[in-house]
Automatic annotation (TrEMBL):
Keyword Transmembrane: yes
Domain of life: Bacteria
Name this polypeptide is given: Sensor histidine kinase
Residue ranges of the TM segments: 24-43, 63-85, 97-123, 143-161
GO molecular function, a single term: phosphorelay sensor kinase activity
Organism of provenance: Colwellia demingiae
The keyword Transmembrane helix is annotated on this UniProt entry: yes
Lineage: Bacteria, Pseudomonadati, Pseudomonadota, Gammaproteobacteria, Alteromonadales
Pfam name, any one: His_kinase
SUPFAM superfamilies: ATPase domain of HSP90 chaperone/DNA topoisomerase II/histidine kinase
Keywords in alphabetical order: Kinase, Membrane, Transferase, Transmembrane, Transmembrane helix
Signal transduction histidine kinase internal region domain mapped to chain residues: 182-259
GO CC annotations on file: membrane
Length: 377
């Protein structure tokens, strides 16, 4: 009983999905055109047989067939949706469809005959014909097999097409979700790394120089506020990012004092271009880590930006004291930056590390020059 109710519920669901104006419109057009082509053949056959007086009969015969099959078609559609036709199920499904032909065709013929008789009674007051009912079913059964097979073929083609579209859409959605998760993972790797280093700096100075530690904490608060503000804001203007990074650079200068010199040269046309939030922080951190920290001598970090042929170019130059380590690896921050830019820009962004001479290295980032409306898209 439950299986019967489940089947009827499924059939009702098919009918419900069909009952939209768009489906009814397409069904009406398709049925009307198919019936029109068939009725021309019926009229031609009638004329060949010498039945010149026939006028409305071929129309009734044709469209009663079209409407009758339309009535039972949702049952057939539901069964096709229920029974997959893949390699693992082809034999089983073929047997089921062959057995289904009997009840589907019986219902189709019944609906067709009812419609024909109603039409004949309304038009000329007589029944459709004087054939024995069993003979009529025996006559119509083999005629229906062609339309049955064609309809099954079209239905399965539509099912596989819809499934293919859904799979492509699901794959695209999954790819977007994975990309978002990966981006979040990359950012979560950058921020704790920076936070850990800064907290170590505060810990090492809080007892030696309380004012310096207080200043570091204030600037750290500014950076954290900026970081939190960009959680839901993946892109910021280059000017916003640079202003936030001033806090980081000031923290570093408080740490190293006169050992660290800084020069910033920003092309005004680049200030309103959009870049990924927190892009500069790991790059500047590496410049300090590899350029200033290893040596007791004075070192200079240079930050430059320029707009060249529709591309934003950012350069960070710093002293180079650990040649082997920098050659072998970009480090966590730089590698994450490369991965992050590849996810955002594919092959349109590049990150390169070049040694200008024996004691300097320049990190160059090239991004597409985008304004706010472009990043929103």
């Amino acid at each position: 009983m439950n299986s019967i109710l489940s089947y009827l519920t499924g059939v009702f669901g098919v009918y419900k999905r069909w009952c939209t104006w768009q489906r009814i419109f397409y069904l009406t057009i398709t049925g009307s055109l198919s019936g029109l082509m068939i009725v021309q053949t019926e009229i031609a056959d009638a004329l060949i047989r010498g039945e010149v007086g026939l006028t409305w009969q071929p129309w009734v015969a044709t469209y009663s067939s079209v409407i009758g099959f339309t009535i039972v078609s949702p049952f057939l559609i539901y069964c096709c949706e229920l029974w997959p036709f893949g390699k693992a199920h082809v034999i089983k499904t073929t047997i089921k469809l062959a057995l289904l032909y009997v009840p589907i065709t019986f219902c189709f013929i019944t609906a067709m005959l009812i419609l024909r008789n109603i039409a004949h009674l309304l038009i000329d007051g007589t029944l459709f014909d004087g054939w024995d009912l069993i003979d009529r079913y025996i006559y119509e059964f083999p005629k229906a097999i062609a339309i049955y097979l064609i309809f099954i073929f079209i239905t399965y083609t539509k099912i596989y097409y819809d499934n293919s579209q859904k799979e492509q859409l699901n794959a695209a959605n999954l790819q977007n979700e994975l990309q978002t998760i990966r981006m979040q993972t990359l950012r979560s790797q950058l921020q704790p790394h920076f936070l850990f280093n800064t907290l170590n700096l505060i810990s090492s100075t809080v007892y030696q120089d309380a004012d310096k530690a207080d200043s570091i904490i204030t600037r750290l608060g500014d950076l954290l506020r900026y970081s939190l503000a960009t959680e839901q804001k993946p892109f910021v203007t280059f000017k916003e990012e640079l202003q936030a990074m001033q806090s980081y650079l000031e923290i570093s200068q408080l740490r190293f004092g006169e050992r660290m010199e800084l020069e910033i040269s920003v092309e005004p046309s680049t200030e309103l271009l959009m870049i990924p939030a927190m892009l500069l922080q790991p790059l500047l951190e590496n410049a300090v880590k590899y350029g200033i920290e290893p040596s007791n001598e004075t070192g200079k970090i240079t930050l430059e930006s320029d707009l060249i042929e529709g591309l934003l170019q950012i350069k960070i130059t710093n002293p180079w004291h650990q040649r082997r380590q920098q050659q072998e690896s970009f480090g966590i921050g730089l590698q994450n930056t490369k991965d992050r830019l590849k996810l955002l820009y594919q092959e349109q962004a590049t990150v390169t590390l070049d040694n200008n001479n024996t004691d300097q290295v320049t990190l160059t980032i090239i991004l597409p020059a985008q304004h706010m409306e472009q990043t929103n898209e």
